[in-house]
Amino acid sequence: MKHYRTILLGFLALALGSCDDETPENGGTPEDNGWVLVWSDEFDTPTSDNRPNPSKWTYELGAFGYGNNEKQNYTNQVKNASYETYDGVGCMKITALKDGDGADYSSARIKTEGLFEFRYGRAEARLKLPYGKGLWPAFWMLGTDYATNTWPACGEIDIMENKGIQPNIVSSALHMPGRSGGNPVTSTFGYQDRRFDTDFHVFAVEWDRERIDFIVDGTIYHRVEKASVTDGEWAFDHPFFIILNVAVGGDFGGDPDENTYFPQSMYIDYVRVYQKAADIDPDANYGDVPSGSSINGWDFDGEDSDKGLLEPEMK
Fold first, then answer.
1. Per the structure, how many domains does the chain have?
2. Residue 49's domain is classified under what CATH number?
3. Does a cis peptide bond (omega within 30 degrees of 0) precede residue 30?
4. What are the distances in angstroms from CA 191 to CA 53, 129, 168, 220?
5. Which end of the chain is more exposed for a tag (fewer CB within 10 A), N or C?
């Protein structure tokens, strides 16, 4: 629903390796820190039509600018979202084209709305970003109640956004009543000698009842404590769904110019969601979850239950 904002990037916050003990860098894998994998898409096995797996993803469609003066038409066509092997890695590729298909540009926005949602946990994606003025790749989450609890009351968690002309800088943001549009709770992360468009990087959020941490390549660079938000209304204690997209043009990073080359693609190696055992909700919509997992007596089997959960086995 990104119809709202002009996020103001602050100064470039250079990563100096200031991790705490809960980061994967210090604790190994997320599982080593007590996280349980509850949902993922590894994009290793293409579907028969080469489009995103319909049991995991659906599409946002349209060319109405999304309140940001964006210039793309979001489609459900293979040309804009398809499986592809990149440098030996199986990926989902979201591609922006300058092709005049319903607008000056076409692209894709895929989401788990209606298929998977969760409250509290760790969401991460390994991404290689596009490059060029006017490109706006994003990995983010929106409150599932946005249709009735309209934005920003539904809450929005922007895990990663990038201005395509700044290949070494990404940003994160929280949108809520009182802190939204051009005034979110936001921060930036950057490298002096590395770029996000030339290699894969892991972007993650860790979210619980008390705080939200934003992480790049194992480094926590922005922590927002619920108790510290005194000028906004915290809107992050209910389920959210995941969105990945590449917008073209708009208020965030400006429009493409004559030096912007098309096509441009964001490559998604995987998307994974973890939770602590205490936060797993048997009444939530988990969609397809890794079969064979068992947490607190709940056996996960995405094929046998539309919630992805079976009744706990009596022992």
1. 1
2. 2.60.120.200
3. no
4. 34, 14, 6, 14
5. C
Confirm whether 168 is domain-assigned: yes
Output the pTM of the full model. 0.86
pLDDT of residue 290: 54
- Give pLDDT tens digits for 48-65: 999 999 999 999 999 999
Is position 42 annotated as part of the catalytic site? no
Other C-beta atoms closer than 10 Å to the C-beta of 231 total: 10
Catalytic residue among 113, 117, 124, 161: 161
The catalytic residue among 156, 206, 225, 313 is 156
Res 238 pLDDT > 70: yes
Domain that holds residue 208: 24-279
How far is the C-alpha of 68 from the C-alpha of 247, rounded, in Å? 10
15 within some domain: no
**Sign of the four-CA dihedral 191, 192, 196, 199:** negative
Catalytic residue flag (residue 156): yes
- pLDDT tens for residues 194-236? 999 999 999 999 999 999 999 999 999 999 999 999 999 999 9
237 CB-side CA count, 13 A: 5
* The two three-digit tokens of residue 227, written as one number: 């108790």
Q: Does a structural domain hold residue 163?
A: yes
